Amino acid sequence: MEDFKSRKLLIVDDERDLRDMVDGFLRKEGFTRIYQASTCAGALELCQSVKPDLVILDIMLPDGDGFSLLASLRQLSDVPVLFLSARGEDADRLLGLGLGADEYMVKPFLPRELVLRLTAILRRVYAPPRQEQRPVFQVGDRVVDLESGTVRYNGSEYPITAKEHALLSKFYENRNRIVTNDALCQAAWSDDYYGYENTLMVHIRRIREKIEEAPSSPEHLLTVRGLGYKLLVKGD
């Protein structure tokens, strides 16, 4: 079984006391490979040298902001990111998730909740693959490969995130049928899915950007008003 507590964690926050506090209770939970950065520049340097397995990221930093830092990180890797910020507005949360963050938590926070969400991300991203082969299917001119976690078209490959993978898997299991919002949230966030409806919309938009020729006028991943969504897959 995967030992998630051996994974490398990077805490990026300009408040030393908060970094040390998070560092302390993570170590009490058994995590030992923890790194800290107080600036965007320092975080990028550590991401290149240490290659953390997960980043806990603040928004307000002295030499930039967490949103631009996340965009820079995405040019280097698909490392999962958990935003931990005092900015709790919906616009900030949706922006962070839209840029590819896996979670968004607002300060003040419960340390135990942070550990649970962090562990859930590590489990989703780094759990050993199951032995059965995951499906490969075509949507229009796009090939969705759930085994490799990519979408292929025009000779290029585009990675999908852990959340997108969970949602696409659920869609494929129920292809050509309506999947409710609750069922999709359950697939992506397990039992702790309440309140993620707006977040779901962000991930649906990101999936459409990868599988639709015209994401604003989808032909394959359709909205069923008041119920949920339907993925149309020909030949099934």
Automatic annotation (TrEMBL):
Residues 134-233 form the OmpR/PhoB-type domain. Residues 134-233 bind DNA. SMART domains: REC, Trans_reg_C. InterPro entries: CheY-like_superfamily, OmpR/PhoB-type_DNA-bd, Sig_transdc_resp-reg_C-effctor, Sig_transdc_resp-reg_receiver, WalR-like, WH-like_DNA-bd_sf. PROSITE patterns: OMPR_PHOB, RESPONSE_REGULATORY. Residues 8-122 form the Response regulatory domain. SUPFAM superfamilies: C-terminal effector domain of the bipartite response regulators, CheY-like. Pfam families: Response_reg, Trans_reg_C. The modification 4-aspartylphosphate is found at residue 58. Keywords: DNA-binding, Phosphoprotein, Transcription, Transcription regulation, Two-component regulatory system. This is Response regulator transcription factor. It comes from Paenibacillus hodogayensis.
